[in-house]
Write a structure and sequence with these properties.
The complex is a heterodimer of chains A (289) and B (403). Chain A has 11 helices and 2 strands. With 289 residues, chain A is mostly helical. Classes of the chains: A mainly alpha (289), B alpha/beta (403). Chains A and B meet through helix 1, helix 4, helix 9 and helix 10 of A and helix 1, strand 7, helix 7, helix 8 and helix 9 of B.
Chain lengths: 289, 403
């Protein structure tokens, strides 16, 4: 294997890593504030892709509009779930949140599968981003390049807002001690609701980004979310930067596996997960509780 | 620490979760439709196969003839262990007499042995591996619709003859992919072509970019897709992103179903060459069947797997009625002795090795401008006559065939 090929695989891995990063970031944000492990994340990612598809089919609105509208719509649906169901569970054991969101995910996916089957629906790459650059060492589809850049920007912006702004400071404070923050006149329940909505919107955004690459498929979420949860276990919940770095890094590891031992490319992340759990049970960047 | 444990727990739940297991009942002639009902093969077989089996029973007029037939179905989740467990439960406890469909060669091979051990009948429509009528052939199994040898022979030959003489395989890493790759490689080499490389990807892979780059680097003229369903559509779709076709390479979809073409859309799928043994728009009988079928299966038009289930169940009922017994081994023997005749495949026969034979067709996917609308996707390039469509009976190494 020459260095050129190696380099192109590195890039490909980073592209997949971008999806892992976006999704695990949303999970981390939600867990950080709500203490809920959002198992509906994959379904919400899938709904993002479907929202893009519906916008195109029913309203004639293309990719760029979908990139804005789909996360908002799915985020609002997320808020609905938070208001009607999740908010009753904050005081209870994590297990309840897990069961609820897992159930919600199964219901959503079941409904979509019944309606749209399992083969998926076509969604084309926006005309501005079709084609490919010849980088000399590889053929880089413009759309893939866009996905890496865009999700990197989103990830870093999220990290910046949470770690470096006043709003983020409130969020972090509310994570530590909600009662005290509320005493300072900050509407913590609303903040929690909006945070869940934001986390869900991140998943939906990843879904829109994925739609032109994969088929818009009711199963796309459940296929990906298993890996993403492994990524989260490896990175450790609650660390924003941790989930971004782990996402990209594991995408790259997986990419290399596809070259050197493709048969294991579905399992390599779980092997790493098992190893990390043995050595650092709270994950590479996780808080030790 | 607890959270990590919870996450892992949840992960396990995610991996293990699947739709409910077998739907149980009891009856006289009990047909079990076992296939993938929730994952990448669910549209090309799935509930559609259950619909096809029901239609076969209704059209046969089983009730009027005094035959009490019941149909049960279950999801094997593409896992041989799950499939085997359901099959044992069906055969032992639920008095199921025959299992039909069973896409996923891994599951089919496992069931092939179970049906043989228990003296029950297995009618395979969905699975592809030609081993079912080769080394693994059984007096209790009939392989109905198509197999890897037929696919390789049809598509592989046609492509090598039109100049596609260097190949790179993207192969699904299980029994089916291996068999299809092996059979196609044999055809390619025999016709004077060369295989430059291959890569084996796990079943149900989302992202093919890494594999596509390897294929691109091989400079092979043809990228042979020895996979099916969602794997094939993902590979083709992402291939167009990486400019595979623009760069002068071409895909050979070795197993492409009409549902895959529908999912890809004609702009992406046009020009693909594929082998099938059934297309809904062939004659008045197939069109009538497709119309009734689509009404009952969410508008999906029947794949050759669905058609095969219909045809196989029809012939099974005929044999049971003639024998007045549903003993698996006897019924299969009777089915082999009786010529087949049904509206979808016409007249045909079943060979001693369990291979049901009929013509195969080489289709080309239409250009968007040639298509009159949804599901009008194929034009016929060639008909491969029955005698040439399947592996000659003496070359399969099937122990049932007397030399």
């Amino acid at each position: 294997m020459n260095t050129q090929a190696l380099f192109s695989q590195l890039l490909i891995g980073a592209i997949n890593g971008a999806f892992y990063a976006l999704l695990s970031l949303g999970l981390s944000v939600i867990f950080g504030l709500l203490n809920i492990i959002n198992f509906a994340h994959g379904a919400q990612y899938m709904m993002g892709a479907f929202a893009a598809y519906f916008l195109l089919q029913w309203a004639g609105l293309g990719y760029w509009t979908a990139l804005l509208v789909a996360p908002v719509v799915v985020g609002l649906l997320g808020i609905l779930i938070e208001r009607t169901m999740l908010k009753w569970l904050y005081q209870l054991d994590h297990l309840y949140g897990l069961l609820l969101t897992f159930g919600v995910a199964l219901v959503i996916e079941g409904v979509f599968r019944n309606e749209f089957g399992s083969s998926g629906l076509p969604y084309t790459i926006p005309p501005q981003l079709t084609g490919a650059y010849n980088l000399g060492f590889m053929f880089l589809p413009i759309y893939r390049g866009w996905v890496v850049l865009f999700s990197l920007v989103i990830c870093l912006a999220t990290w910046y807002v949470i770690e470096r702004t006043k709003l983020g400071a409130y969020l972090r404070a509310a994570t530590e001690n909600p009662t005290l923050v509320q005493a300072f006149g900050i509407n913590v329940p609303r903040m929690i609701t909006l945070t869940y909505g934001f986390g869900v919107a991140l998943a939906a955004l990843a879904g829109v980004l994925a739609a032109p690459i994969y088929q818009v498929n009711p199963l796309m979420g459940s296929n990906l979310i298993i890996v993403v949860f492994a990524v989260v276990v490896i990175g450790g919940l609650g660390s924003i930067m941790g989930s971004i770095v782990t996402g990209f890094a594991l995408g790259i590891v997986e990419g290399f596996t596809k070259v050197f031992y493709p048969e294991a490319s579905n399992t390599v992340i779980f092997v790493i997960m098992a190893l990390v759990l043995l050595v650092r049970p709270s994950g590479l960047f996780g808080r030790t509780t | 620490m607890r959270i990590a444990r919870m996450l892992v727990l949840g992960l396990v739940a995610l991996v293990a979760a699947g739709p409910a297991a077998a739907q149980m009942s009891d009856g006289v002639i009990k047909i079990g439709v076992l296939n993938d009902q929730s994952s990448l093969y669910a549209d090309l077989a799935g509930q559609g196969s259950v619909v096809a089996a029901r239609m076969a029973v209704e059209d046969y007029g089983a009730e009027k003839k005094g035959l009490k037939v019941e149909i049960v179905s279950a999801d094997h989740q593409n896992k041989p262990d799950v499939g085997s467990q359901i099959a044992r439960q069906w055969f032992d406890a639920d008095k199921v007499d025959v299992i039909v469909d069973v896409p996923n060669s891994g599951v089919a091979l496992a069931l092939n042995q179970i049906a043989r051990d228990k003296g029950k009948a297995l009618l395979v429509s969905g699975a592809a591996t030609a081993d079912l009528t080769g080394k693994a052939c059984s007096p209790n199994t009939i392989h109905w619709t198509y197999d890897t040898w037929a696919l390789a022979n049809g598509t592989g030959n046609a492509i090598v003859k039109t100049g596609g003489d260097t190949w790179f395989f993207l192969t699904a890493d299980y029994a089916f992919g291996h068999a299809l790759e092996r059979d196609t490689e044999a055809v390619v080499t025999k016709a004077g072509g060369k295989v430059l490389g291959k890569v084996r990807h796990p079943l149900n892979t989302q992202d093919f970019s890494s594999f596509l780059l390897q294929a691109q680097a091989s400079k092979a003229k043809i990228i042979g897709l020895a996979n099916a369903g969602g794997d094939t559509t993902n590979a083709i779709k992402q291939g167009s992103e990486f400019g595979i076709v623009r760069g002068g390479q071409n895909f050979a979809g070795l197993l492409v179903f009409i549902t895959d073409v529908h999912a890809l859309g004609l702009p992406t799928a046009q020009g693909l060459i594929l082998t099938e043994t059934f297309y809904w728009d062939m004659n008045d009988k197939t069109r009538a069947f497709a119309k009734r079928f689509a009404e009952r299966d969410r508008g999906i038009h029947p794949t050759m797997i669905h058609a095969g289930v219909y045809s196989a169940v029809t012939h099974y009922l005929k044999a049971v009625e003639a024998l007045k017994s549903d003993d698996g081994t006897k019924v299969i023997a009777k089915m082999k002795d009786t010529p087949t005749d049904d509206p979808l495949f016409g007249k045909g026969t079943i060979r001693p090795d369990g291979r049901k034979v009929h013509p195969a067709y080489l289709f080309e996917v239409k250009k968007p401008t040639e298509s009159k609308g949804a599901w009008d996707y194929y034009k016929l390039r060639a008909t491969i006559p029955t005698e040439q469509a399947f592996r000659p009976v003496d070359q399969g190494e099937c122990p049932l065939v007397k030399k």
